Amino acid sequence: MKPTDCCRNNRMKQCGFTILEVLIALTASLLLMLGLTRAFKLIGDSITSSQSELSLANTLREVTFRMRDEVGGLTTSFAAPQSSTADTGYFTYYEGPWTDATTSIVNGRSNASSGIYFPTSRYGDLDDYLAFTTRSRTGSPFVGVIPAGIIEAVRYAEHRRNGLAPATFRTTSGKTLAAYNIEDSLELVPFYSELAEVVYFVDPTWQRDELGIASVALPTDDPAYTAQPSFIDIVKESETDLPGSIGDNIPDRISLRRRILLIRNDLNLTFDEMTSANGSQQGVNNATADDEQLPFLDPVSKYVIPATSFSLPTGRLFSAGLWPASGPNPSSPDWLTGMARPLQWMDLSVSRVTVAGNTPVNHAIKANSLMALSNPENRFGFVRIPASLLGLGGTVVSSMPVLALSQPHPFITQAQSATFAPPSGTPFGGGTGGQAVGAGPYSSFSMTGFLRPEFSLSDHVRPWTATLGTATADRVRSLPTLRGGSDIVAEDVVAFDLQVFDPTAPVATFTGGTTPILIEPTSYGFRKVLENPTLPNYTFAQRGAYVDYAYCRLAGGVFGGVNPLMGTPRFAMIATKFSGIDRDPNNPTAALYPEGWFVSGRIVASNGPVNGFFQPMVDTWSDVYDRDFYQNVAPPPLGVFSVLGSPGHARQPSYLSSSPAVITGFNRFVNGDNSFEESTSPTSIIGARNSESMPSAIKITLRVQDRVNGELRQLSIIKEFTGPL
Fold first, then answer.
1. Secondary-structure breakdown of the chain: helix, strand, coil percentages, each rounded to the nearest 5
2. Distances from the Cα of 116 to the Cα of 109, 120, 248, 447, 712, angstroms
């Protein structure tokens, strides 16, 4: 071997890598790859987070801007009561017992191991309700869908009024009357209106059967039957429930729903108009001969009939059901949810037809006008409780109009010791008393939860039937609407909060730090501060704040009801304009309900077998009950607790009576003491008392979350009212 070859071989050996060098290189490469992976993950997370933020922001902007625009077109002045003879419409805001502080308060009572942080604290106010009538911008009318049979009925009636023969009639699709069939009549077609009833409400994901129908609507012979609406609750975030239990009494998913109901009372026809269109009385129900009803062109008989008389083999399609019967399903009686059925099929503002004596007609419905909507009983989601369920006499027809709400929130009731009466069957039976002093912070008020699930658009509804058979037969009667979820405007909502500006609300200021901290009445720690007048570094001033309406009376609020503060040194500070408390000058420790609540019929407080009823609302209610010539006062056995209403003042119009008023022209409760002055207008008396309690501004807050990334975003709008206050 040549030397040069050896040297060359040695040099070749020296040019290679050792195992250690290879391992070091591999490690460096892996570290570099891990670094790149981490970098790409951070970039991906940042992009995902940005996309999530952008999506949430877009949802918030779209909903709140639309809401601001719709509230800006409000048809009514912000005063109460409105005249029943004016086409003004209404504005209603209902404040539910859940507040922004509810989850913190309830969880704070547990022995939670997670320290001071509670995952459920992201949930805010979940049960407020907003509804109003509004006018669209010029050239941009509201759009909704209605069954074609209604439009064709109006067109056919006009065709016949013009002296034209049935054979020459053509539908909007060009068909003759002979070719017009059931598919044509049930087709949902777009319709328009410059006026609309707009409703916003929060709705959980309800438990439903295999057809998508809320489980509450199942018949009693079905194994899945439940007496109460049940929302889906599997995820457990709270530590206040029993170990090992499923769920935490908070809905797993919550949506914000919006209904646009067109105000088109020109679609109504009278009995005479239907008869004239048919050339005879055949096919027309004359039970309401003097009243207008929503018509329908029957594809079988080819007659114009009331829409509620139109019936498929599976049952009545657009009927409001029997009233005041409790059937056909006791868990979803017609008086409570009957109006939800036609609202599944049409985006029209509709209500029950009422005849003399304040009595609703079975099945019959009409399209609302602005004037009709000033009366609360005609609005979306409002019902009247039959007197038979309240244990009242034959002269009393029903309660005043109230919202059709579900049972109390289980998350709140788990922290209460009171017994609650169910809304099914006899909703107010099984207890006495109202929210009297010493009766507990929540008493036995029953209809205070989410709006009934029947009022949310779903894919299937059960039409009214004369009788119910087996569970299988009932399912066959279920008809698809294919509209489920189309009223959802925001998903994964964790707060929809309405508040009013209270100019005299107390605000605490903490001065112990470098920067003063304001604690408002809706803050979690406000009650602690208020109950400890000797607490250092705190000062109080009634400087005003946005508050939940009746914040001192809300079961889920920072006060947990008013009782704990009675007799404390700062009790007088919470008797503010919108706290829900009036003070009795003869009893400084008593908390009275505001007089306006009794006059507007929003509260029933009794000392008989009927439970107290409590739905606090800011409402431009109508003076229609002052002028309907009927006695709208509580029967003598159901007098008001003196501690609840100012003695000698403002007895509430708690029930709608069929008995004529003793005084001709107006009702007896005009002056609040069963007296009457012929020269004095009821509007001037009641209006002066209640309009003073209307707020000057309302704040609406919407909070949404991204379930995957955990992002939270919140946006608020403020609406100031410049009308007569």
1. 25, 20, 50
2. 12, 12, 18, 33, 20
**Three-class SS state of 221:** coil
Residue 403 contacts residue 615 (beta carbons within 8 Å): yes
| pLDDT tens sequence across 251-283 | 999 999 999 999 999 999 988 888 889 886 555
Report d(CA 484, CA 492) in Å as an integer: 17
Classify 538 as helix, strand or coil: strand
- Residues 52, 711: Cα–Cα separation, whole Å: 7
688: Cβ–Cβ under 8 A, 6 or more apart, which residues?
Answer: none
Q: How far is CA 329 from CA 87, 334, 467, in A?
A: 37, 8, 10
132: nearest Cα among 86, 77, 199: 199
All residues at 6 or more sequence positions from 666 whose CB lies less than 8 Å from its CB, including other chains: 626, 627, 676, 682
The rounded distance, in Å, linking the Cα atoms of 578 and 572 is: 13
CA angle 346, 259, 461 (to 5 degrees): 45
Backbone angles phi, psi at 91, to 5 degrees: -140, 130
Alpha helix locations (H) across 510-614? 526-531, 595-599
In tens, the pLDDT along 195-241 reads 999 999 999 998 876 666 665 544 444 444 446 788 888 888 876 55
Q: Rounded to whole angstroms, how far apart are CA atoms 350 and 360? A: 13
Length, in residues, of the chain: 725
Rounded distance, CA 358 to CA 659, Å?
10
- How far apart CA 712 and CA 694 sit, in angstroms, is 33
The whole-angstrom separation of Cα 155 and Cα 149 is 10
Q: Contact 565/142 with Cβ under 8 angstroms? A: no
CA dist., res. 127 & res. 423, Å (int): 17
User: Cα-flanking dihedrals φ and ψ of residue 152, to 5°?
Assistant: -65, -30
How far, in whole angstroms, is CA 114 from its chain's centroid? 34
Dist. CA 685–CA 671, nearest whole Å:
7
Listed as own residue / partner, the contacts of 333-340 with beta carbons closer than 8 Å and 24 or more positions apart are: 333/424, 334/464, 335/383, 335/384, 335/385, 335/386, 335/389, 336/383, 336/404, 336/423, 336/427, 336/452, 337/404, 337/452, 337/454, 337/455, 338/464, 339/365, 339/383, 340/404, 340/452, 340/454, 340/455
Long-range CB contact pairs, 26-35, < 8 A, 24+: none
The answer to whether the CB of 263 falls within 8 A of the CB of 145 is no
Pick from 681, 628, 621, 624: which is nearest to 659 by CA?
A: 628
Least confident window among 259-273, 340-354, 687-701: 687-701
DSSP letter assigned to residue 714? E
DSSP one-letter code for 636: G
Question: Alpha-carbon distance 217 to 224, whole Å?
Answer: 10
Q: Which two tokens stand for residue 494?
A: 């964790």
Is residue 483 a contact partner of residue 455, using CB atoms and an 8 Å limit? no
Q: Encode 136-169: b = buried (16+ Cβ within 10 Å), e = exposed.
A: beeeebbebbbbbbbbbbbbbbebbeeeeeeeeb
CA 10/CA 528 separation, integer angstroms: 87
In angstroms, the CA 366 to CA 349 distance is 9
pTM more than 0.90: no
